[in-house]
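Before any further analysis, backbone shapes were mapped to integers, which produced the following:

***
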Amino acid sequence: MMAEPTIAEWHEQFARQARWTQMTRSQLYRRANLLQARRILDVGCGTGILTNELAKRTRGTVIGLDKNPAMLGYARRRTSRIRYEEGDALDLPYPDGHFDIVSCHFVLLWLSDPEQAVFEMARVVRRGGSVLICAEPDYGGRLDWPDFPIREWQIAGLRSQGANPFIGRQIRYLLAEAGLGADVSVVPSHWNAQTLYENYEAEWRWIAYDVGHNVDQLTFDRVKKHAWTAIEAGTRLVYVPIFYALATK
């Protein structure tokens, strides 16, 4: 199975995830009036993929926050225009009401206490400001055709890493508990042969990482091969619901 990814490999995966939700984020940015925001916080910024995007779409100051110093170092080497700071999403090092917009992307599923993280994001955004939950997946809703057991594999594998594979369906609850009104939706998905071909190796590389040692190699290789056969036959479909939300304080 896949060894622990390098920071460069994580960066590639973050970029791939960002492509899945690009149209949705553009809509969220417009609705939150990102262009006019003065202070924006990107929580769990990782290697800075979306932090850079935010900085290009606003006239304000953008801060990327993460607790992983190696990822922050990678982000800083890519640009000197953005402030990257080390910190914990469960205890944001900023005063109440400091930001106009607080954003995160594929972050809450990895946190030990996502409810506390959302409470913190709500705390540091100003009255009338926005909290953008740009993408949180729900692997319990994963669909595959042919009907492979990948959903069960990923649920078990993510749980073994301390992640919450069902975080997507909890987004509305988490925001309401933090006192935020929110519009919650699911990212639309599109399937075509080219996308399935292009994503095949990357998809299975990261499934291998998620699955870890929960599936024997022979079974894994057999299902992976059958997935490729289905792509060639034009019958393959894979869908993971990815939830997003715009919340106003």
Notes: The mean pLDDT is 95.
